[in-house]
Design goal:
The protein has about 200 residues and is α/β, with parallel strands linked by helices. The chain contains 7 helices and 8 strands; from the N terminus they run αββααβαβββαβαβα. It has one domain: Rossmann fold, CATH 3.40.50.2020. Helix 1 runs antiparallel to helix 3 and helix 3 crosses helix 4.
Length: about 200
């Protein structure tokens, strides 16, 4: 990452992953007796609300620390962090604050007024190094849509990640597109069944 003058202490990634798994389980997870519909079209008894899990300031900081450590573990240098609104928004902002980089948010469609931009926040030019993030994914449809929007502005997506990957589909899609993909947590880390 391209950091400014801020000094950030670095804790080990395994420790941060374990803390984040506990945060998700304690503050963003519930087991439902009746299955519910996922945005991917599948169903599950395991409900994960990562936005609720990281809503408190200390947990907001933890997610930034964990994602930054994940990027460092892959020697990924980035200038901006973000993804599809709204799942990626708090994560992109948290990471940008911690690493002194910029944040961005990808709309589902371009605005019909003003500058009619689809990507807000960071001003993009060719080759801008991007860390693409999301909160919870199953098929990866939303994060891949954000990837396509970034390709349209010639951004260089150096890594994609999510707080929780609920299935086994997204990795293959990123491999096909030549983008490094590493989720912070998977269904295995939470002890739940995969979807899809």
């Amino acid at each position: 990452m391209t950091a400014g003058s801020r000094t950030v202490a670095h804790r080990p990634l395994p420790e941060l992953r374990a803390e984040m798994a506990q945060v998700i389980l304690d503050f963003g997870y519930e087991r439902r007796e009746q299955p519910f519909q996922l945005s991917s079209g599948g169903t599950s008894h395991d409900y994960i609300d990562a936005k609720r899990a990281i809503a408190k300031g200390s947990r907001f900081g933890l997610v930034a620390e964990a994602i930054a450590a994940l990027a460092r573990s892959h020697q990924v240098d980035f200038e901006a962090a973000g993804g599809m609104t709204m799942g990626a928004d708090p994560i992109g902002v948290a990471v940008a604050m911690l690493t002194d980089t910029e944040w961005f948010s990808v709309r589902k469609a371009s605005k019909g007024h003003g500058r009619q931009r689809r990507i807000e926040g960071k001003e993009f030019g060719p080759g801008v190094r991007v860390l693409l993030v999301d909160d919870v994914i199953t098929s990866g449809r939303s994060i891949l849509d954000a990837l396509d929007a970034l390709k349209e502005v010639d951004a260089n997506v150096v890594m994609a990640t999510t707080l929780v990957d609920r299935g086994n589909v997204a990795r293959g899609a990123f491999v096909e597109r030549g983008v490094l993909y590493e989720p912070l947590l998977t269904y295995k880390d939470l002890g739940i069944d995969p979807v899809g």
